[in-house]
Each structure stands twice: as C-alpha cells, then as structure tokens.
Specification:
This protein has about 375 residues and is of the alpha+beta class. It has seven helices and 18 strands. Helix content is about 25%, strand content about 40%. The strands form five sheets. A four-stranded antiparallel beta sheet has the order 1-2-3-4, with helices on both faces. The protein has a four-stranded antiparallel beta sheet with strand order 5-6-7-8, covered by helices on one side. A four-stranded antiparallel beta sheet has the order 11-12-13-14, with helices on one face.
C-alpha cells in the first residue's frame, strides 16, 4: 500500500523515480570511492609504475623529463598513467596498478619548444626555498637548510623544504608546478640549534635512524672511514667529540674499533637533545646507538643479530649485504665503487620491508638508491645536482 501511494499519480510516480535514481547514484559513487581507495592502497605505487614504463621504453630514467604518474580508473581497471619526455619523444603509458603490466602506450615526437614548455612548468629548487623563506619572514643567511628536495606526494610534484633559525624548525611543502604552499609547520625546539649559513643541504628525508637534521659526518662503510660532509651541526665546547661518542658506543657494545664497520656517525637532535647517532655492524651483530652529546651517556641503543656480513639473519632470511648493495647501485649508475664517494650505506625498513639505502656522489651529482635487501632489486632511485 505504501509503494502504491508513491506511484498513485503520474506526478508522484515521476518524483519517486527521480528520487530512486538519486539514491542509487549516491550509493554507486560511495562504492567507487571505496574501491578506488582499496585499489590504490594495494597497488604497486607510482615509483614502481614509472620504473615499469622506463624499462619497457628501454631508456635511462635519469634522462627523462617532465615525469608524471597518476593513479586512475580507465577502461574498467585501475592503472597508473605515466608520462615523460626523452630526447624529443613523449611517452605515455597505462600500467596495471596491481602488477605493472603495460595496458597501453603511446609514443609521440615533440618539438624542442614543446619539450621546454612542459619542463619549464616546474619552479626551481632555489625559487621554492625563496618562497618558504619569504613566508617565514627570514633571510637566507639566517637559516640552516636541512632538507631541500623534489618529491612526489599523491602524484603531485612538491619541494620538501626544511630549515632551522636559532631554536625554531620550519617545514614546508611547496607545489613544484604552481609555487603554492601546500603545507607548513613551525616547531620551537627545547634546545637552541646553531645556524650555519654556509652549509649545503642533504637531499632526502629519512627515518629516525637517519633524520634530515643537519649532519656532521657521513660514512663510507666499505673502507670504515668517516667522510666529512657539508651542512655540519656545530659542536659546542661542552659537548664530547664524535670520536669520544664512538668510543662510548664501542665500549657499551663490548667490541673493538677494528672489528666493526660504521654505517653512520653524526651529530643530531632527538626531541631537542643533542645526540650522536652511531651505527655499525660486526660479523654477527648490527648496532645502533644514540649517545648524549653533553653527558656521553647512552641515550638509546638497539642490537640485532646477524650470522655474517653477507647477510644471513638468525630468522634464516638471507640479505645480500651492504657491499653487494653498493656494487649494484654504482653499477646501475654506470660507475664502479672506487669511482664514487659514499655518503650513506645502511640497512633500514620501509612499510615492513627490509631495504638498503645507498647514497653517493660523483662529480657534482648526488645519487640515491633504495633496494630490496633480499633480492637486490632496485625499488627507487634518484639523481640530483648538488647545491
């Protein structure tokens, strides 16, 4: 009887049908959004989609310009729409979002002017830094940059800009295409951090063990010698030296300097406290220490058992080892290990996966690699001209 009431006259019938259509459309829209979110969360990711496209095209990713990767729903399936330009040729790929298979590709020649117009849509790193400083109302010579890099977030090219001024930390995300400020954060530290206006910037955000705060030393883990780099944290007179901090860590671990390989040794800050981050491994264990830079006491430590340096852990999962990871990265870049200067070589975890992070310099270019610690497969890599 109730249903008959809604269709008792032509007018009521028409209104009832329109209402039903609207309800069905709303339910369908919600279902599509939910399916999109699930598909993207379980997809291969934008960076892997790019690598599948580069491999199919047979080109060196470092030569690609105007690279874009967007998650989309096309022709009944979820895909990554990947576009880039190499030597006057524009490539467009649809890669299956689940497995990376090429669904569609289009290759088109473009003129030099077309290529330049696409690339020039992005602002420069220098301009992004100027935008952040202007918003913070600070001059370049009053701050210390700790991160200044081009990154991707939700398929949007952004510049991650981080710097210190006295005891305040600033973090900005700048839209690389428009120059608009996407997000910003300002935090006053518990302890003042001295500025070094002549410092250069590291170029990658990292985990707690390798933060983007300014660095005193980065380590070449192959020859076991610390290499001084730019952008140093300035040690105060009351703080112990890096060598003293390393000695404290070795003593606590009960090992000697000759039996370890350092993968990190630097002055950093943790919740406003100056600490030395010391990481090293022996033939059987991997150690991570934070040593209080003022008192010399162990602030934090972690010890993980290994069977050997080539990398068989006690849980029987096999890793390729730091040296092999460095060889893979340098070979991919077209160099040998002896040709480059390493600034990072360490094992880390990312979303529950064990990886190696390898960074090195050759000439005026910095190379950054992430690879699967078990297989040696390169998961992500980036090159950037050093500032």
């Amino acid at each position: 009887m109730i249903i008959k009431k809604y269709f008792s006259t032509p007018l009521r019938a028409s209104l009832s049908i329109v209402s039903l259509i609207a309800i069905v459309a709303a339910l369908s829209t919600g279902t599509v959004y939910a399916a999109n979110a699930i598909a993207q969360n379980t997809s291969i990711g934008a960076e892997n989609a790019k690598n599948f496209s580069f491999a199919d095209a047979g080109i060196d990713p470092t030569t690609a310009k105007a690279v874009q990767a967007e998650f989309e729903y096309e022709q009944g399936q979820f895909v990554y729409d990947v576009e880039f330009i190499v030597d006057g040729t524009e490539y467009e790929y649809w890669n299956n979002a689940s497995n990376g298979n090429v669904v569609k590709k289009d290759i088109e020649n473009v003129t030099l002017s077309d290529t330049n117009s696409v690339v020039s849509t992005q602002i420069t790193l220098k301009k992004a830094k100027e935008i952040a400083l202007s918003d913070a109302k600070l001059a370049d010579n009053k701050v210390t940059f700790t991160t200044a890099e081009l990154d991707m977030e939700d398929s949007i090219s952004v510049y991650d800009i981080e710097f210190y001024a006295e005891n305040t930390q600033y973090e900005y995300e700048i839209n690389a295409n428009t120059g608009a400020i996407i997000s910003k954060d300002k935090e006053i530290q518990n302890k003042q951090k001295p500025a070094d206006s002549t410092a250069k910037q590291p170029t990658k955000s990292a985990s707690k063990e390798d933060t983007t705060n300014t660095k005193q030393n980065k380590v070449d883990s192959k020859n076991n010698a610390t290499k001084p780099v730019t952008n140093k944290q300035q040690k105060t007179a009351s703080q112990i030296t890096l060598e003293a901090a390393k000695a404290k860590a070795l003593a606590d671990a009960g090992v000697t300097a000759s039996s370890v390989t350092y993968t990190q040794a630097e002055l950093d800050y943790d919740d406003g406290i100056a600490v030395y981050d010391i990481e090293f491994y022996t033939s059987t264990k991997e150690y991570e220490y934070e040593i209080n830079a003022d008192s010399g006491k162990v602030h934090d430590k972690s010890v993980e058992s290994l069977q050997n340096n080539t990398g068989k852990k006690e849980n029987s999962r096999t890793y390729i080892g730091i040296d092999k990871a460095k060889a893979i990265a340098t070979s991919h870049a077209g160099f040998s290990i002896s040709d480059v200067t390493f600034s990072k070589a360490k094992m880390d975890t990312d979303d529950g996966h064990t990886i190696y992070e390898i960074e090195f310099y050759k000439g005026g270019t910095e190379y950054e690699y992430e690879m699967d610690a078990s297989t040696g497969n390169i998961l992500e890599y980036d090159t950037e001209e050093a500032d």
